[in-house]
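Students often ask why we bother encoding 3D structure as a string. The short answer is that it lets us treat folding as translation between two languages. Here is a chain of 163 residues written in the first language.
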Amino acid sequence: MRKMAVILALIVCTAACSSLRMPGSSQDPSSNGTLAVSSGSGNVPDQPSYDFQDIPVPADMELQADESIIFEMPDLKAGALVFSARVEPISLFNFYMLKMKEHQWRLKSYFKYGRYLMVFEKPDKICVIRIQDQRLSTKLFVWVTPSADAKSASRLSEEVLEQ
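And here it is in the second language, the structure alphabet:
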């Protein structure tokens, strides 16, 4: 009788655990960790809006506020945002290849597969996206900085000195 109770408890635990998803994950368990990327123009409607309005973030990604930092002045916003979710790194890479172009970012270079690193540029700023595959999740790092051309660097240093 005792053996039967243990077996029944194991069956109940197994069934309960199989229906669980990773905390913060809103993806369908049958999606196998891939992001849906539409080829239409504009933002994906369910994308959360974070500190950089021209950088899309998939709805599945959860902001890690304790690992992120934003610096802002009247004419400047820079910083690093960190996100995590249970998604495939290549799916996240493909998302950014498509969506950054829709936000007028120009791809400068990238590394793909073993390590994912993407560099995008606008006339006045640069965005670096790093995707890191981990055991139970994927981390997304988004760095935004002003361009380091002589004009903007000079203007920034003058503003800092005046304050």
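Translate back mentally: The first strand starts at residue 62 and ends at 63. Keep this in mind for the problem set.
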